[in-house]
């Protein structure tokens, strides 16, 4: 897999805008006769990169004359943006897409499309072609920028369309975006992955690493900062590789430094960092710059070196621990989070204990833990020694028990302290509370009202439990 990077030209983007204009005229004339405006529903599964992609899909839909809706039953256009990292996400996407069949019967003019990582896999693409005949179009991750063209063709040709191109990986700029938040923004700084971890499909469905032009990124953030945005999360499958393909002496730490020079009162977050490419320069930059949150998400995946080698992670447990130790030394009270996979093929009970030892040794604020899920056509799926489900589940429960105890102890240390929190909105777990996060990415619940949403507040922590802290706004 050695695709070249293709920069989509301004002329090609302009052509997509012409397709948007044609669609806008088509939807206006068609729905005027019905006495209403057309509505679009964009449903997203998976990671923050998918969330960011969906904001562009929503932006293009709005430019084509659609009003966005959260209710699929009232939509005239449904786009499902899918994930392929775990089988559970794929099955959920397919299940919900199956429920849209009856909507098509009620509204035969409804257009249904599926895009994203899942449909970039040949076997899933074939499944949908054969088993979901009411789905009008599919397009892969490389085809997102051609969404207006695909939708217009679907209306013109009245037949199912399948848009995929695995020959090149592209970079595009200048498409409309409909951001879900008025104060938080996802900013993709690069796409794709070169790491080929043995359990992961991302390089196959997202392509090879390619970085956006730093000028484009800086201009995008500057415009949003001028509008009052308070938080920017920089996205990439491995942000620490940013700039390697640009043939200029400019890396991710340099990008962070330049972002911090932009005027405004805002935080900068980023994910995900691969440990093999995380540098002391990056940690020094986080320590030096006030606008960068003091939170480092650094997936270690397993605490045993033999398992790490099987995973093709390209670092060992000693090197990982030295890196986080340096982060703790340079950034007092740094918030450390990680990803962990439980039940990787051939992992023994003793090797799993090495993972528990890493949790206790580092004392992560929290971890995103996953039961290993075989992904078709990845090396790990073909390995002998697949772990029985009951063993994986038992290990998973043990890991949660250990980490939850650590998390609660760390949260309890905040009781009585006053911290800076960005209030994000109503709590999903407690409708009486509002919720936000501090610069260590810890969840904080408060009593408040809508006037606090999108603002930084000083919050005194009154109590803490495993999954959140509770406090009182004092300023």
Entry keywords:
globular, alpha/beta, OB fold (Dihydrolipoamide Acetyltransferase, E2P), single chain, five-stranded mixed beta barrel, Rossmann fold, pyruvate-formate lyase- activating enzyme, 21 strands, 3 domains, 475 residues
Topology, please?
Layout: E1 4-7, H1 10-32, E2 39-44, H2 48-63, E3 67-68, E4 77-82, H3 87-99, H4 101-106, E5 111-116, H5 122-131, E6 137-139, H6 147-157, E7 161-163, E8 168-171, E9 184-188, E10 190-191, H7 202-206, E11 210-211, H8 214-226, E12 231-235, H9 252-259, E13 267-271, H10 280-288, E14 295-297, H11 305-311, H12 317-330, E15 335-342, H13 349-362, E16 366-371, H14 389-412, E17 418-426, E18 434-438, E19 443-446, E20 456-464, E21 469-473
Parallel strand pairs: 1-8, 2-3, 2-4, 4-5, 5-6, 6-7, 9-12, 12-13, 14-15, 15-16, 19-21
Antiparallel strand pairs: 10-11, 17-18, 17-20, 18-19, 20-21
Overview of the molecule:
- The chain is of the alpha/beta class.
- It has three domains: 167 residues, 3-Layer(aba) Sandwich (Rossmann fold); 232 residues, tm_1862 like domain (pyruvate-formate lyase- activating enzyme), CATH 3.80.30.20; 56 residues, Nucleic acid-binding proteins (OB fold (Dihydrolipoamide Acetyltransferase, E2P)).
- The chain has 14 helices and 21 strands.
- The strands form six sheets. The protein has a six-stranded parallel β-sheet, with helices on both faces. A five-stranded mixed barrel has the order 17-18-19-21-20. Strands 9-12-13 form a three-stranded parallel β-sheet, sandwiched between helices.
- Helix 10 packs parallel to helix 12.
- The radius of gyration is 23 Å and the shape is globular.
- It starts with a strand and ends with a strand.
């Amino acid at each position: 897999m050695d695709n070249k990077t293709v920069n989509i030209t301004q002329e090609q983007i302009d052509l997509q805008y012409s397709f948007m204009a044609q669609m806008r005229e088509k939807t206006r004339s068609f729905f005027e006769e019905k006495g209403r405006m057309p509505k679009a529903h964009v449903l997203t599964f998976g990671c923050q990169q998918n969330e960011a992609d969906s904001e562009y899909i929503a932006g293009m839909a709005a430019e084509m004359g659609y009003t966005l809706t959260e209710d699929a039953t009232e939509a005239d256009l449904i786009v499902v943006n899918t994930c392929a990292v775990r089988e559970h996400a794929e099955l959920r996407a397919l299940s919900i897409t199956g429920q849209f069949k009856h909507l098509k019967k009620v509204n035969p003019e409804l257009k249904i499309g599926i895009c994203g990582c899942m449909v970039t896999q040949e076997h899933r693409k074939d499944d949908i072609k054969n088993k979901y005949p009411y789905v009008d179009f599919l397009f892969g991750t490389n085809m997102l920028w051609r969404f207006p063209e695909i939708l217009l063709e679907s209306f013109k040709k009245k037949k199912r369309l399948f848009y995929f191109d695995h020959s090149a990986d592209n970079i595009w700029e200048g498409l409309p975006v409909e951001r879900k938040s008025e104060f938080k923004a996802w900013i993709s700084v690069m796409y794709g992955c070169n790491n080929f971890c043995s359990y992961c499909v991302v390089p196959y469905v997202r392509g090879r690493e390619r970085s956006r032009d730093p000028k484009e990124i800086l201009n995008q953030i500057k415009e949003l900062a001028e509008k009052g945005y308070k938080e920017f999360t920089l996205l990439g499958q491995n942000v620490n590789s940013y700039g390697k393909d640009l043939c200029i002496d400019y890396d991710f730490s340099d990008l962070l430094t330049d972002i911090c020079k932009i005027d405004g009162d805002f935080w900068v977050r980023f994910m995900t960092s691969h440990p093999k490419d995380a540098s002391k320069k990056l940690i020094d930059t986080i320590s030096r710059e006030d606008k960068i949150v003091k939170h480092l998400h650094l997936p270690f995946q397993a605490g045993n070196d033999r398992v790490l080698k099987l995973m093709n992670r390209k670092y060992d447990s000693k090197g990982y621990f030295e890196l986080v130790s340096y982060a703790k030394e340079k950034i007092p009270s740094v918030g450390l989070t990680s990803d962990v996979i439980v039940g990787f093929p051939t992992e023994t009970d003793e090797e799993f204990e090495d993972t528990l030892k890493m949790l206790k040794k580092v004392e992560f604020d929290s971890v995103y833990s996953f039961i290993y899920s075989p992904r078709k056509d990845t090396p790990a799926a073909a390995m002998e020694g697949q772990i029985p489900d009951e063993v994986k589940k038992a290990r998973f429960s043990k890991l949660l028990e250990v980490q939850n105890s650590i998390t609660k102890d760390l949260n309890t240390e905040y009781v009585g302290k006053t911290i800076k929190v960005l209030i994000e909105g109503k709590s999903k777990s407690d409708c009486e509370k509002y919720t936000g996060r501090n610069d260590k990415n810890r969840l904080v619940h408060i009593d408040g009202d809508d006037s606090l949403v999108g603002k930084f507040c000083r919050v005194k922590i009154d109590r803490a439990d495993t999954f959140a802290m509770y406090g009182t706004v004092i300023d």
